[in-house]
């Protein structure tokens, strides 16, 4: 049944609910879910709780602003399917609502012979995902990026850039216009889920909000919200900080330039991104953050760090990838080392060309055995839907992710009304 035709199941007599669907998290995924709910089932009462004073204050608003094509992701995975469809939808959404964006294309560049087989594998993966890519020899790279050096490259034409914070604001406005309530400054400190009744949430300012179904889009805190609900997610968020620089000579880069990623690690490496403002971001690297919102080395939260260290998967991950991690730490602590990494792609860059700018933190789910969750992870339990792994390319894929989460929430509403 198409869920636009579903009737909203009404509150059972004798029970009082503030909303039908209670969404925790006002990033782009939570707001896309609220937007999708109001469009799919008009009349559904939706409330969004966001602990910050406005939307998109963390992962959504602290990234490179790239609309990813989907070329990297395993064929058939949620990331592949939702990035490919989401990229096209995001461009259309930005055009419809006059949000700054551009379809720029990007280069993925191999700088060593060892990277060439992985580059060719990306060509095949892109084609399996329905993406058109152009293979380039070293001399052809200059057609797109005269200052970039490499042995070979591929050009992916569907990659773009946009202002994801503006997208999140527009989603919030559209959801509110359709009747959703969005409460900012509402930090959740307790969740009481009763499978036979619903969910009650206590916020830090003492408010109690009651809903029939909970949707957890809490990003960096999603595993904590799941556990407060009484569910064991089977993974923990291990925060990785991505540190960025701004290029003092943006004329060195025309568009977007990426290295060939390491298939063993889901981070894309230090890349060059010309943003919608004309500036060029360089980065990020990936270092362990000492807090869920640890945007610099000075921010340490003992409870959160202790929880990360207590998770067996953190130690398994460290043992498995210590060489990779050591290199990332070195580049974090040494601008010279970071500069040398950038020079692999952009030989003309100098250390004084790199100006530190705002960092981001990736909410990466790590399983108990130390495996990094490599796909979006959405878990359903009684009267709850938890989005437990939604790092990049979640912003690109946020519109189809939101529809999928909304579909599951509406199904849970129907089940609860039986």
Radius of gyration, taken over Cα atoms and rounded to an integer in Å: 22 Å
Low-confidence runs of at least 5 consecutive residues: 1-14
Q: How far apart are the termini?
A: 17 Å
Percent range of helical residues: 25-40%
How many helices? The count is 11
Strand content: 25-35%
- Taken from the alpha-carbon principal axes, the silhouette is globular
Q: Estimate the mean pLDDT confidence.
A: 93
Q: Biggest β-sheet, characterized?
A: 8 strands, mixed
Helix/sheet category: alpha+beta
Question: How many DSSP E strands?
Answer: 22
Helices and strands in order, then pairings?
Layout: E1 19-24, H1 28-40, E2 46-50, E3 66-67, H2 78-96, E4 101-103, E5 106-110, H3 116-128, E6 133-137, H4 141-144, E7 152-156, E8 160-162, H5 164-177, E9 181-184, E10 188-194, E11 198-203, E12 208-216, H6 222-229, E13 235-242, E14 245-247, E15 256-259, E16 271-274, E17 280-283, E18 287-288, H7 302-310, H8 312-320, H9 322-333, H10 335-343, E19 354-356, E20 360-367, E21 377-381, E22 384-389, H11 398-416
Parallel strand pairs: 1-2, 1-12, 2-9, 5-15, 12-22
Antiparallel strand pairs: 3-8, 4-8, 5-7, 6-7, 10-11, 11-12, 13-18, 13-20, 14-17, 14-19, 15-16, 16-17, 21-22
Helix pairs in contact: 1-5, 1-11, 2-11, 9-10
Structure description:
With 418 residues, the protein is an alpha+beta fold. Helix content is 31%, strand content 26%. It contains 11 helices and 22 strands. The strands form 4 sheets. Strands 1, 2, 9, 10, 11, 12, 21 and 22 form an 8-stranded mixed beta sheet that branches. An 8-stranded mixed beta sheet has the order 6-7-5-15-16-17-14-19, with helices on both faces. Helix 1 packs parallel to helix 5, helix 1 crosses helix 11 and helix 9 crosses helix 10 (335-343). The chain is globular and about 70 Å long. The two termini are 17 Å apart. The model is unreliable at 1-14 (pLDDT under 50).
């Amino acid at each position: 049944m198409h869920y636009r035709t579903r009737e909203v199941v009404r509150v059972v007599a004798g029970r009082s609910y503030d909303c039908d669907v209670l969404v925790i998290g006002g990033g782009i995924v939570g707001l896309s879910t609220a937007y999708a709910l109001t469009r799919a089932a008009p009349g559904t009462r939706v409330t969004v709780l966001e602990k910050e004073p406005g939307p998109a204050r963390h992962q959504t608003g602290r990234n490179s602003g790239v609309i990813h094509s989907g070329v990297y992701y395993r064929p058939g995975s949620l990331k592949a399917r939702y990035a490919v469809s989401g990229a096209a939808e995001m461009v259309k959404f930005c055009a419809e609502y006059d949000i700054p964006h551009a379809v720029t294309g990007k280069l993925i560049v191999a700088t060593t012979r060892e990277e060439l087989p992985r580059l060719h594998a990306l060509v095949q993966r892109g084609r399996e995902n329905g993406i058109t890519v152009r293979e380039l020899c070293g001399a052809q790279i200059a057609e797109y990026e005269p200052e970039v050096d490499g042995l070979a490259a591929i050009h992916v034409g569907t990659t773009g850039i946009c202002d994801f914070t503006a997208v999140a604001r527009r989603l919030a406005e559209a959801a509110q216009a359709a009747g959703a309530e969005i409460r900012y400054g509402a930090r959740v400190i307790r969740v009481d889920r009763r499978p036979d009744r619903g969910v009650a949430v206590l916020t830090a300012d003492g408010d109690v909000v009651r809903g029939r179904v909970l949707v957890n889009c809490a990003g960096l805190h999603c595993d904590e919200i799941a556990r407060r609900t009484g569910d064991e997610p089977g993974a923990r968020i291990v925060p990785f900080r991505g540190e960025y620089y701004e290029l003092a000579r943006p004329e060195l880069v025309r568009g977007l330039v990426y290295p060939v990623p390491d298939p063993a690690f889901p981070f894309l490496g230090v890349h060059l991104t010309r943003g919608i403002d004309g500036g060029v971001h360089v980065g990020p690297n990936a270092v362990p953050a000492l807090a869920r919102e640890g945007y610099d080395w000075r921010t340490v939260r003992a409870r959160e760090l202790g929880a990360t260290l207590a998770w067996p998967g953190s130690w398994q991950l460290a043992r498995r990838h210590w060489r990779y991690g050591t290199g990332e730490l070195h580049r974090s602590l040494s601008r010279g080392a970071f500069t040398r990494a950038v020079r692999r792609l952009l030989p003309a860059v100098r250390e004084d060309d790199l100006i530190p700018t705002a960092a981001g933190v990736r909410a990466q789910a790590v399983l108990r055995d130390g495996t990094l969750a490599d796909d979006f992870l959405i878990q359903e339990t009684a009267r709850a839907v938890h989005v437990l792994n939604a790092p990049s390319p979640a912003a690109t894929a946020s519109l189809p992710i939101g529809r999928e989460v909304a579909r599951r929430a509406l199904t849970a509403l129907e089940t609860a009304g039986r």
